[in-house]
């Protein structure tokens, strides 16, 4: 690192009436903590303030009950009763020298109107933006518009009273009433709020002007605006009305926070986009406005961040995922500890969890969402009272994470893995096309472990029960992973499928380098990335590939990582033949027999030479059973305890390590958010 190379990232920046201490912004991302979980949410934000982020964003906060994302875990600033909690959050953020911002939103036709019982409101009479839900939006009349403007103004006033340094007017992601009024796709009005560009812009302009009036120079007002629709209706583009909006409102907000819409385009995974992928859409903004510009793009490399600022693309670097994966990223850059950055792998497990209504989890950072309730710090663990000898068998995500956590506490840690290289599945799966970044799970941990004197790493070292016994460790953790089933038992079908056990290959075989002839049929009863990524990989290598799933659509879980439609597009582009809604009943003489999953009706056989079964995994229990037979105490962790995602394995490794340290509650009950009882 050259002296001063990253200094520009630490230059303060004036934003209207406030000054950000540096260029790092923790975006107002969804944390999976609703307004009912303020303690956990404050824990997340405070940890990032401690880690050096200059501005800490409060997630999308509804301004009143007509913005109703029923069932999704968002924030509220409806009335003065909500101010106290926000003020506490602001106070904690300020205590670390960071600024606090809040994203004030009305979600318009993205709302659902179920929980609060008021009609969803839109510019026109339209179905809500969830076609599979039988709800519609009311076309707002003049009194609704007046009320909405008053709601925004009042929310700005409350944000100010809560002590926020900056409030956002939110007009992004196809999820804001202001965006819905702007878009000719949704706005079919014939009054002064519809028709011409200036008319459709009117509401956004009015709300922004009133926000500035209300903020009265005591709080900055930012506009979060998607300058380009990369998905969805594609009516607002960076060379069309997206640009026109920035030109029309150029100096009205104190800060432009710009991105692309919809969410799947904004939060692209590593499979589909490189770091800094929004530049081509957002780089014009700084040329149009004199106000500071903030943007995102899964930034993890300080060099890319510096380049964006030096080239005049952005003034501030925004991060959701990079701050989830490494809350201390800014401090590490400031201290020149670039190798210590726990880089986001771009998997969107965080998004998938949040979309399930649960507090966010992260593949790279097991302490995410545990800051308050379990008191886990992402960088430190309490020191062990006495250093003990710990043997970990298996150097995959679980084994390496457990090793790092225990070594940080001061224990003497040995990791043995039978493979030539440490890394387990994070290494193996990173060889599949599109999954190279999965390797970061291993790279971060291995590098950290290699720096520590109390860690001993042995690759190429298969241990049996006798070898483990002979080692004489104080504690034994088995992180020996799992194996894919060959017999067809999967997630929807729990019985073996005829002909599979003797003939099918599994992902383990493929990743271990087994050669096989095509055409290939992949049977996917797993529904995440493995079958689909393998299909594309094999097709790219020249195989004719068929992919069959009992589910109604392929890559079901990838809908939650915002990747499903991209994945289907990839399969199509690779000429993979797709068979959804098809349950396999047997494999014989190069033919997969299938029936419709919904009706049970027979479908034509699918002919191929090689069958690859991607169905379910079971723990590797051989070593555990042998140790149990000798009465040797041990604990299975990660996939060896229960097969799951890499995120689950890392989390398991971390949790088991902390349990071994004795810092976790015996009864397994950690701090909880408790509702207030008014009766
Ligand atoms: P997880 O996701 O739970 O970390 P992985 O499958 O990624 O699990 O890693 C398991 C690791 O354990 C693999 O790298 C494998 O080589 C190693 N392993 C399995 N059995 C043994 C054994 N008996 N001795 C040493 N290493 C083992
Ligand atoms: Fe990045 Fe994956 Fe963590 Fe999300 S879950 S922050 S995408 S590593």
What does this structure look like?
There is one protein chain. The chain has 23 helices and 28 strands. The chain is α/β, with parallel strands linked by helices. The strands form seven sheets. Strands 3-4-6-10-11-12-13-14 form an eight-stranded parallel beta barrel, surrounded by six helices. Strands 17-16-15-18-28 form a five-stranded parallel beta sheet, covered by helices on one side. The protein has a four-stranded parallel beta sheet with strand order 22-21-20-26, with helices on one face. The N and C termini lie far apart (61 Å). The mean pLDDT is 97. Adenosine-5'-diphosphate (ADP) is lined by residues 393-399, 416-419, 424-425, 462-463, 479-481, 620, 623, 638-640, 649.
Brief summary:
The chain has 23 helices and 28 strands. It is of the alpha/beta class and about 675 residues long.
